[in-house]
Amino acid sequence: MKRSSSKVIFTDALCLFIICLVITFAVAGTRAVFKDRIAKQEWKQTQSVMSQLIKADDFQEIKMAGENQGYQALDTTGKTLGYLFVTKTYGYGSDVSVMSAVKDGKVVGVNVLDASNETPGLGQNVTKKEFVDQFSGLNESLEIVKSKPSSKNQVEAVTGATKSSKAVAASVKEALALFEQVAKTEK
Questions:
Q1: Contacts of 140 (CB under 8 A, 6+ apart)
Q2: Which residues contact 11 (CB under 8 A, 6 or more apart)?
Q3: Contact at 8 Å (CB) between 164 and 92?
Q4: 109, 136 contact by CB (below 8 A)
Q5: CA-CA distance, 172 to 101, in Å (whole number)?
Q6: Strand 106-114's sheet: what is its strand order?
Q7: Tens-digit pLDDT profile for residues 106-132
Q8: Mean pLDDT within 63-92
């Protein structure tokens, strides 16, 4: 009797293993088949966000060191309208991914791409327009404050989410530093 129950367990385990193996290969195969289509969709979404920050006819990727991403915004004649940088900084619960648009050394727009692992109702509020709009026109000396800003380069932190707010500010500062590097190479 024991032999047959162990045989059943072995058979069931083998079937489960084979099913998992087939599903894994099916998902991997599907991903490989649609890789180009997925990349086009992701690029389209990235361009949509970039267009909201800087109105441009074309965006060209710039080679960046590390995980950062950089893009040059161009008009139809090839003139540079500004730069966009995707940077990440650790917030309260995870990395906060931010796209910053920079022109002439100043921030012209910010979009928080991912703050999904920040505290819901607190840290995730850094994605709101009221917060990110405060960065427009600022330069690398920007500072996060807990109360109403008293100077031009200060940004009021989201209430209860100082770490998340500082993560966004650090990402924006990183984008401004990347802009300076790119500006030096183009001279």
A1: 105, 173, 176, 177, 180
A2: none
A3: yes
A4: yes
A5: 9
A6: 58-62, 69-74, 80-90, 95-103, 106-114
A7: 999 999 999 888 888 888 899 999 999
A8: 92
